[in-house]
Amino acid sequence: MLTPMLGEISGSIHVGLAGLGSAIGVALVGMKASEAVGRNPGAFGRIITLAVLGMALSEAIVFYAIYLAK
After folding, report:
1. What is the pLDDT of residue 14?
2. Domain 2-69 coded CATH 1.20.20.10
3. DSSP states of 20-48
4. pLDDT surpassing 80 at residue 61
5. Contact at 8 Å (CB) between 56 and 17?
6. How far apart, in whole angstroms, are the C-alpha atoms of residue 60 and residue 21?
7. What are φ and ψ of residue 22, in 5° steps?
8. 60's torsion region: left (phi>0), alpha (psi -120 to 50) or beta?
9. In the predicted structure, residue 9 carries a pLDDT above the cut 80
10. C-alpha closest to that of 32 among 47, 49, 53
11. Higher pLDDT, 12 or 10
């Protein structure tokens, strides 16, 4: 009785954990980017470019997990 329930839960738990990890990654990138701009406002263009790239790579993890769930 417990085994089918665990099989159903584990089918989507990795997508949820990937979403949680991605959200934490995006938050950390945004936090450090704003800290870096605060320290050196002249480097805003390079910092924001790298921050957006880092956020996109972090969010890609969720799409990989969704693809693997199907």
Report:
1. 82
2. yes
3. HHHHHHHHHHHHHHHHHHHH-GGGHHHHH
4. yes
5. no
6. 11
7. -65, -40
8. alpha
9. no
10. 47
11. 12
